[in-house]
Request: fold
Amino acid sequence: MPINIIVCVKQVVDPETPASAFKVDREAKRVVPASGVPPVVNGFDENAVELALRLRDAHGGKVTALSLGTDFVMDVMKKPLSMGADDLVLLRDSSFSNIDSFGTAVALAAAIRKIGNYDLILCGRQASDWDNAQVPLGLAELLGLPSITTAKSIQVRDKTLIVERALPDGYDVFETPFPAVVTVSNEAGQPRYPTLRGIMMASRKTPITWGLSDLGLDASAIASKLSLLDLFIPVTQKQCEFIEGENDADAGRKLALKLREAKLI
Amino acid sequence: MSGLMVIGEISDGKISSSTCELLNAGQMLDDTLKEGVVAALLGSDPGKATQDAIAHGADKVYLVEDPLLKDYQIDAYLAALEKVCKDTSPSIILIARTLIGRDIGPRLAFRLGVAVAQDCIEVKIDPNTKGLVGNRPVYGGNAMAAVTFTQLKPHIAIVRPKSYAALETDGSRKGEVVTIQVKLDPALVKVKLIKSVKEPSEGVRLEDAQVVVSGGRGLGGPEPFKDLEVLAKLLKGAVGASRAVCDAGWVDYSHQVGLTGKTIAPDLYITVAISGASQHMAGCSGAKVVVAINKDSSANIFKEARYGVVGDWNKVLPAFTEAVRELTQS
Reply:
């Protein structure tokens, strides 16, 4: 049985941006993108795309990547397509510039209804910028679907999904009818690299772009319920005491003595 | 709307440690709020935990009993919590960012049509508006944000575990226990647990260990983790790892420390060949003393460390371990 999957992906500031290059405009309460460090697709969302592609490869069907934002970098956002997704839908509207998780979920849910004919919604477990992990659960509420978080594998059996949920000390296996919302964790395994052919195919595809009015929504539907009072880089007070020796081994010995002196061992 | 509600978790007939922490946080907020602290407890027989919740700071307990609530199940728990919130109209709700809290907290908020301040490490009450303010790390700890809400209530905060201490148990505290009647239809249960596989780690539990020795990508492969284990054993500690190491399959995910792994707060945290990416540091911000061994003197880990050695771990670690052996066994 073919399975149609919508994967929600988010463009984020590269989480590998060195702390020294990470800047905040405190006045505007915004992160200033580090020059020369392009944004990336959120890592967990790539894990979700990977699981979606594995399911499609096994069962047939269609994978649609869906994203919401204001400043899309097209080379970045086409990554799900170059990995093998069939379609890309971008929600772009100036009213999204200060959107919170609630509004994001409302807009994405409207887009999912508009895309229609879906069996499964996949999302990364959380986005590496704000780590909220709540838009997927909001989608489940707004669409009236069951939800399972932090999946490491998904199988389709008859009319049900079998989902292994990664836990700190093992995993749980859940069963749910679909459609359902499932969030994917890095335990799902490395996302595939785009092939040259995949990149070529992606470059020829034009994303479908919808604004707020295409979704049948007005600004009040996505109005923020949270407000940001402050955004700043914390100052660390810690001073590292470097232990030196005649050579590396000697430094190792001296470190042990230092920890003993400080009654830490 | 009035009152501060802590959504409690029960294990083995007692309230969980993170629930104790939130009851304390709730009492601190209530110094300004002055509306009382309530614990909501759900289960098939949660009655045993009520006194425990009161002894740890609850002024009142709302109890929901139902066979469907025996173990955590998202659909049943959501329906029960929705009813509790609608019947009692709290103004503030605190939820711990545990496996359960992460899973159910945002859904509860959306169901009530309100927002959540996620992953707070500090919560406060604005004395003027009586609204909730949450302070939280963002961008993997590179930045801090303070967030607040519109007037729409309840205000919900999901609080990172170990951000607050628990109150000492006070058996003399008194509190009212109110049972809330909820009719749960078994048909609402959509997600069913069919199997639970435990992969317990050996020795000291990472989350409870007083000493943790962690390795990073710089170790180059799985082999050196045997050396870390030897060191951890000498110090009666546990072995941790960065996410990259777990993703590479060098050690099991049960060792992962970080934002999406385990949160640890040991007295001594020894890191070997760990660069100290903010995503990792978010899992060990509670460590009292961080020690770093890394060949790159500009690595971020040295900004977080109290003691550091800049050098090749291949040479530093054996000598360090040997000296620790002599010092701890003499």
Chain A has two domains: 5-222, 235-265. The mean pLDDT of chain A is 95. Residues 235-265 of chain A form one domain.
